[in-house]
Write a structure and sequence with these properties.
The complex is a heterodimer. Chain A is mostly helical. Helices cover 73% and strands 5% of the residues of chain A. The N terminus of chain A is likely disordered. The chains are: A mainly alpha, B alpha/beta.
């Protein structure tokens, strides 16, 4: 069994089996409660509404990147520390395409294609050779990738601030006292749309089924003809695409610079853990929650100054994890070694 | 004493005379490190890469000016040999590079090094080695106030708290009922600015309705800007580095906040940044800041700007497009380099390190063609702030606009 799993590219020799589903009733009820609270608050206070919308737009970006982390975690069982830098590099690719004269959305689409290829290539060239050694080996490779990508981007494009054309224009809509930036709404829409498309891919296509199988039961999947290694590579490709979306959606507010995704990655980690590291839905909801939570505490909690905002966010995260160690949507796993 | 003894005495006497003569001769010609009869070696650390690399046009302009001076006779016949090292704005890299400049490059002076933290990381070492650390490119007031403890260190530009004080006084005089909302970077840089503003506002500091800080790790400024908006602020004061300043202006427009006045600090008031902010939707018209260098766009007929243009064309053509767009860092580099050449010319026929410091501590000239017209470089034994004047400037013309000066030169900016 051991050699078979190894030969077939199985990630681990453990057997995973779902014991409980992620979305338990209390969690769903709590989320509905939070949603009601946000709607009521938004209807009664314009600043509350505005902070919430801005938080959702920011949170959608956290969610996209968190989802990328989750995809790779499911496939390779490591956190990809280079995820943010990869997203940043892909944003530079998009920038370069617009410099060469492509329209924004054409460059956007082409960037996603390039991201997919780059993601697959990274898995095949640098991850696969160390994949079966140990988790630590893969983690070290991703840290190396982080440094390598950062260096390459700075070498090619320099570290000074660069600007892309605003993809959604600079229009601001006013609904009563609340101002909604078209850009925030656009970011929210694009991020959520990419997540939904990915969800459809996983749930309703044969490829998605094969990928889920390869991630969950590599040995069994390969026995029924799934090319496990390719599925893992495609997983990296899709994660890279999601990262590119997150990067391109970050650019209008943070602009282009090599460090642009580092703070985002930090919050994406938090979002992924909050959602339960293995749950795509959890990652997205975790991202939205972190985004809104940061904005509302900054507005209404007097002592949540900029020094304390991050610690407070992580303290809440810690409490959630103490109550529900697997995250909001995580599944408990039993491993038989 | 026999014949033999006499000869010995003569020889001994001659030897003593000769050795004294040699000693005297070498005393007369003993030069400080980095100085020869034909050259003066200087060097500095700059962020050519990394997050602050937008400042890399400063050393490029300085180098161009030194090349120009060298081709026109140098400093009393000596050519300036300027070594530019890249510390990426990382103090841990600045330290070994400063040691390299002193011990292996053997520079006469460390000149123009950029950044507060890199400056603070190296001033102990350089002062202990008695190596001049002159004209640091940062507006923190440490250099101006600490000349007794750190006699080998000097700054150049106006200091940040003084600039903020000037904004406070301006608000008191022109908008006494302003409801002020402040956004500041949560570190020594931003806090020093904020403290200066409160001093300048005096009793009117109660007009500050909200002060929001941000960390450089904040992924967005929306929360802070919305908070300022919700507290009813109508006057927006930003004490930030360039990127967050652009973000703040863009975000204010995005959340539909239109304060009646916006003030940003000089460091972020480079024309290139305002153009970028405007292109991303910020309302830049009416934004107020200060300047102490001539503008390469609106003051193109000034002799200094013309000279800078011709020097760039000949010695640093890569700077031409930024210069044409009004990159204030280029004029900064010229103004600073001019000051060093001026000080070297006044540091004795054969400049010494002590002579250079003495010259920088007794500046008194209005001849710098690259600073804002009318600004005088002035220092004394008790005053180590070379530039203490600034011009208030206001933006007009939106996404294709520019700064225009208004009012009189501010004085005593410190």
């Amino acid at each position: 069994m051991t050699t078979l799993a190894r030969r077939l590219g199985g990630v681990t020799q453990t057997r995973k089996s779902a014991v409980s589903t992620g979305a338990s009733v209390p969690v769903v009820l709590a989320l509905v409660g939070v949603a009601v609270f946000l709607v009521v608050g938004s209807l009664s206070s314009s600043i509350f509404a505005q902070q919430t919308v801005a938080g959702l737009a920011q949170g959608a970006i956290f969610g996209s990147l968190a989802l990328a982390l989750v995809l790779i975690y499911r496939a390779t069982e490591v956190i990809n520390f280079a995820q943010g830098e990869l997203a940043m590099a892909m944003t530079y690719v998009g920038y370069q395409l617009t410099i060469w004269g492509l329209s924004y959305w054409l460059a956007f689409a082409l960037t996603l294609v390039i991201s997919f290829i780059v993601g697959v290539a990274i898995q095949l060239v640098v991850i696969r050779p160390v994949q079966h050694r140990s988790v630590i080996a893969v983690v070290i490779v991703t840290v190396g990738l982080f440094i390598l990508i950062d260096g390459l981007v700075t070498w090619k494009w320099g570290a000074d601030l660069k600007f892309m054309r605003a993809p959604f224009g600079n229009t601001v809509y006013h609904v009563g006292n609340v101002a909604f930036a078209r850009q925030d709404l656009g970011v929210l829409l694009v991020s959520i749309l990419s997540v939904i498309l990915l969800g459809i891919l996983f749930r309703f296509t044969k490829l998605g089924l094969a990928m889920r199988a390869a991630a969950l039961r590599p040995a069994a999947a390969s026995l029924v003809g799934v090319r496990v290694n390719w599925m893992l590579a495609i997983g990296w490709g899709l994660a890279s695409v999601l990262g590119a979306v997150a990067g391109l959606m970050t650019e209008p507010s943070q602009f282009l610079q090599p460090t642009m995704m580092q703070p985002i990655l930090l919050y994406a980690f938090a979002a992924a853990v909050l959602g339960g590291l293995e749950s795509p839905v959890g990652a997205v909801i975790g991202g939205l929650a972190v985004g809104v939570f940061l904005n509302l505490t900054g507005q209404y909690v007097g002592f949540a100054t900029s020094e304390l905002r991050l610690p407070i966010a992580f303290a809440v995260l810690l409490i959630v994890l103490l109550v529900k160690p697997t995250g909001l949507f995580g599944r408990k796993q039993v491993r038989r070694v | 004493m026999g014949m033999k003894g006499r000869i010995l005495a003569v020889v001994a006497g001659a030897a003593i005379v000769a050795s004294i003569a040699v000693a005297a001769a070498s005393g007369a010609h003993r030069l400080d490190p980095g100085i020869t009869s034909t050259s003066i070696k200087i060097g500095g650390t700059f962020p050519l890469t990394g997050p602050a690399s937008l400042y890399k046009t400063i050393p490029a302009a300085e180098k161009a000016y030194f090349d120009y001076v060298n081709d026109h006779g140098g400093v009393n016949g000596r050519k300036i040999d300027f070594t530019i090292l890249d510390d990426a704005y990382d103090p841990s890299k600045t330290v070994p590079l400063a040691q390299q400049l002193v011990t292996s490059d053997k520079v006469f002076a460390v000149y123009g090094s950029l950044g507060t933290a890199p400056g603070l990381a190296t001033w102990g070492y350089l002062n202990q080695q008695k190596v001049p650390q002159v004209q640091l490119a940062t507006g923190d007031s440490y250099w101006g106030f600490s000349y007794k403890k750190y006699p080998w260190t000097t700054g150049w530009q106006p200091d940040y708290p003084g600039e903020a004080k000037a904004y406070g006084k301006y608000i008191v005089a022109n908008m006494p009922n302003a409801k002020i909302g402040v956004l500041f970077q949560n570190d020594a840089y931003g806090k020093n600015y904020y403290a200066g503003l409160r001093v300048g506002l005096g009793a009117k500091k109660s007009n500050i309705v909200d002060a929001e800080s941000y960390d450089v790790t904040n992924p967005s400024l929306t929360q802070q800007i919305l908070a300022l908006k919700s507290k009813g602020a109508d006057t927006f004061v930003v004490f930030a580095t360039p990127t967050p300043t652009i973000t703040a202006l863009v975000t204010a427009a995005k959340v539909g906040w239109t304060p009646s006045a916006t003030l940003i600090n000089n460091v972020s008031a480079n024309r290139l940044f305002l153009l970028a902010a405007a292109a991303s939707g910020a309302n830049v018209d009416g934004v107020i800041s200060t300047s102490y260098v001539a503008s390469s766009t609106t003051q193109s007929s000034l002799p200094g700007v013309k000279l800078a243009g011709s020097i760039i064309a000949q010695y640093a053509p890569s700077l031409q497009s930024s210069f044409a767009k009004g990159d204030g860092n280029i004029m900064y580099g010229f103004g600073s380099a001019w000051t060093l050449v001026y000080a070297l010319q006044h540091a004795g026929k054969t400049p010494t390190r002590a002579g250079l410091l003495k010259a920088l501590h007794s500046l008194n000239t209005s001849a710098n063609p690259f600073v804002y017209p009318g600004i005088k470089l002035q220092t004394s034994a008790k005053d180590n702030f070379p530039i203490e004047q600034e011009m208030m400037i206001k933006w007009a013309g939106g996404a294709t606009g520019d700064w225009a000066p208004f009012g009189n030169l501010l004085t005593n900016v410190r």
